[in-house]
Write a structure and sequence with these properties.
The structure holds two protein chains of two kinds. By secondary structure, chain A is an alpha/beta fold. Chain A has eleven helices and twelve strands. In chain B, strand 4 and strand 5 form a beta hairpin. Chain B contains ten helices and twelve strands. Chain B is α/β, with parallel strands linked by helices.
Chain lengths: 322, 320
């Protein structure tokens, strides 16, 4: 049975600074089914983290404001929820793992205290029950000697271990949706592989859905079922992982894949560059946002924003396919 | 016959740990613990390894920004290990460094042209007109023609890295040491900088020591690659050979977790157990043995020496 967990519909998040209006996310739509993993890729400033934070309703307002769209979680619009209702959902139904595990753990509380807090808050467990479950969770994320680690403080653990603690905390209440924002960017490649494997394993165990946000196409290619490629606040290409990586349609996606040296590439071959620079949010006001760096830009790309069209298996936002 | 531009012999760099109690022996962090490598003229040597394995310490020690604990650094046939400041300044004309973070390596209060002008003046170019022309030529070379009167904040990350490269080239170096030069940049910008570096190498006949944790980039750019683990070089080989035929168990694991894009079939990943041990008390014998599934009795007793397995491929492992 296909069951839709999350549906983001035409989401728009603008930041206001003085009298400037910066559209960080502008008309983003995607959906996620139970047990599915969605990868969101894009470069810095493309709006991928802002999208995640709006789902969690963690954006500070002002300066941010959600100006349009709906975020339907199990059929209910999260944007209509009160702060108290959101607090019930956050950590229990939807939880998040951040990039930097050191800054997202409280340095003065023990690991055990931090994880059991979630359980006491959401599941009404007693302190003792919560601690027992914490040890169980730490075992699940493969932390050696969990009974010892619950009494330790974050600084006593390595980066990889801290990220495991974060994952244990995020999964403590068995959420339906886990959002992982660059979960392995601060880690070494061999540890990264361990953490990704762990996320995948636990996702299957708990039947959760996962959104994984990364700038690294390799990670997303490995772990995601579906991929959304973001550029300057919009999704430019959206499809299942295989189609995006083996049969990209949007000039930006194509460019990105060609710009990365492949393992079986001839060294005499020059890397294809994407010219120009990554735009700062709000820099491009009209037309296609990629037009200044695109080799296929036409007259219409300068004037009007491209519609989303279906090309093969992919949804692509580009005038060349209309 | 290729000429060795830089040769490093048995280089060691230990950092003492603070002593809290008198009487105890001081412990040392053995960041780099006896490594040998060389770079031929016109060659690119890639150095890969995870954080804490000693890549950056190696760079800093080779440049004598840190004093080596032991070993020899031979640059252009001269032993620079015991050079004094004045002698080093001369040597620096031939070896330059490009850092990872282009935001932190430029002075925000100087125009980028001025920053390079200063380098030229320090290295003895007295004529102002000549300096200005050189600065213009350098900016042209890195693709920033006519931008020399801007301040660093007016540039994007990729452009700043170009400025840093121009500054390094100002003294006509023979060796450019690049410490993670593209890691801080967006993916679409990385290719621009990599292409620039390869272009400059071909045009000016430079040699690079290229450090990165991104194996795809290292494979693409390097002629030879050295893999570091916990202060030691565990394997060296020509780039193609190493990536086709990795011999050391650590290199194998490292290569297996680098994802191949655009292929549908997923390859088998070798997941390492545990984490890198502390460099204060590294394991006896082979340093990788605590995480190696092939580890044998001999691995804990005798430290493996590099041995040749053909095709210029050297590996430090008892079982290869």
């Amino acid at each position: 049975m296909r069951e839709e967990i999350l549906k983001v519909d035409n989401l728009g998040v603008y930041f206001y600074a003085g009298d400037r209006e910066i559209p960080a996310v502008d008309g983003v739509s995607f959906s996620l089914e139970k047990g599915e993993t969605l990868g969101i890729v894009g470069e810095s400033g493309c709006g991928k983290s802002v999208t995640a934070l709006s789902i969690m309703r963690l954006l500070q307002s002002p300066p941010a404001r959600i100006v349009k769209g709906r975020i339907l979680f199990k059929g209910e619009n999260l944007l209509d929820k009160s702060a108290d209702e959101m607090r019930e959902i956050r950590g229990k139904e939807i939880s998040m793992v951040f990039q930097e595990p050191m800054t997202s753990l409280n340095p003065v509380l023990t690991i055990g205290r931090q994880i059991s807090e979630v359980l006491i808050q959401h599941l009404d467990l007693s302190k003792k029950e919560a601690l027992a479950r914490t040890v169980e969770m730490l075992k699940l994320v493969k932390i050696p000697l969990p009974e010892k680690v619950v009494k330790q403080y974050p600084h006593q653990l390595s980066g990889g271990m801290r990220q495991r603690v974060m994952i244990a905390m995020a999964l403590a209440c068995n959420p339906s949706l886990l959002i992982a924002d660059e979960p392995t960017t601060a880690l070494d490649v061999t540890v990264e592989a361990q953490i990704l494997e762990l996320i995948n394993e636990l996702k299957n165990k708990f039947h959760s859905s996962v959104i994984i946000i990364s700038h690294d196409l390799g990670i997303v290619a490995d772990i995601a079922d579906k991929v959304a490629v973001m550029y300057a606040g919009r999704i430019v290409e959206y499809s299942d992982t295989g189609s995006v990586f083996s049969n990209p349609k949007h000039p930006y996606t194509k460019g990105l894949l060609e710009a990365i040296p492949h393992m079986n590439m001839d060294r005499r071959q020059k890397l294809k560059e994407i010219r120009g620079t990554v735009p700062v949010p709000g820099e491009i006001k009209e037309g296609c946002r990629f037009k200044n760096r695109c080799n296929y830009a036409q007259e219409i790309c300068r004037l009007k924003e491209p519609p989303i069209v279906q090309v093969g298996a992919n949804q692509v936002s580009c005038w060349n396919y209309t | 016959m290729s000429v060795k531009l830089l040769e490093v012999k048995n280089l060691k760099k230990y950092f003492p740990l603070k002593k809290y109690l008198p009487g105890n022996d001081t412990d040392y962090i053995k960041a780099v613990d006896g490594i040998d490598f060389y770079i031929n003229s016109g060659e690119i040597l890639g150095l890969v390894g995870e954080s804490g394995c000693g890549k950056s310490t190696t760079v800093r020690t080779v440049l004598r920004l840190l004093d080596p604990t032991d070993g020899m650094i031979i640059f252009e046939g001269q032993d620079i290990t015991r050079f004094n400041k004045k002698q080093l300044r001369n040597a620096y004309k031939h070896m330059q460094l490009v850092f990872q973070d282009p935001y932190a390596s430029l002075n925000p209060r100087k125009t980028v042209g001025k920053a390079i002008d200063e380098v030229l003046a320090v290295h003895g170019m007295k004529n102002k007109m000549q300096r200005r022309e050189t600065v213009q030529a350098l900016f042209g070379m890195v693709g920033l023609k006519g931008e020399e009167n801007k301040y660093p904040h007016e540039f994007s990350g990729g452009q700043r890295q170009r400025v840093v490269i121009a500054r390094a080239l100002a003294v006509n170096p023979k060796l450019l040491i690049c410490d993670e030069p593209v890691s801080a940049l967006d993916v679409s910008i990385q290719a621009q900088i990599i292409n620039l570096l390869t272009d400059l190498k071909n045009r000016l006949g430079l040699s690079y020591l290229f450090i990165s944790h991104d194996l795809r980039v290292v494979k693409y750019i390097s002629d030879r690659v050295a893999v570091m683990y916990l202060g030691k070089i565990v394997e060296t080989a020509p780039s193609e050979e190493l990536f086709r035929n990795p011999a050391h168990p650590y290199s194998k694991a490292l290569l297996s977790v680098t994802s191949e894009l655009g292929t549908v079939t997923k390859k088998k990943k070798i997941l390492l157990e545990g984490e890198v041990p502390s460099p204060v008390n590294p394991p006896s014998g082979c340093r990788f043995r605590t995480r190696c599934k092939y580890a044998d009795k001999v691995c804990s007793e005798i430290e493996p020496e590099p041995k040749s397995i053909g095709n210029g491929h050297y590996v430090c492992c008892h079982l290869c």
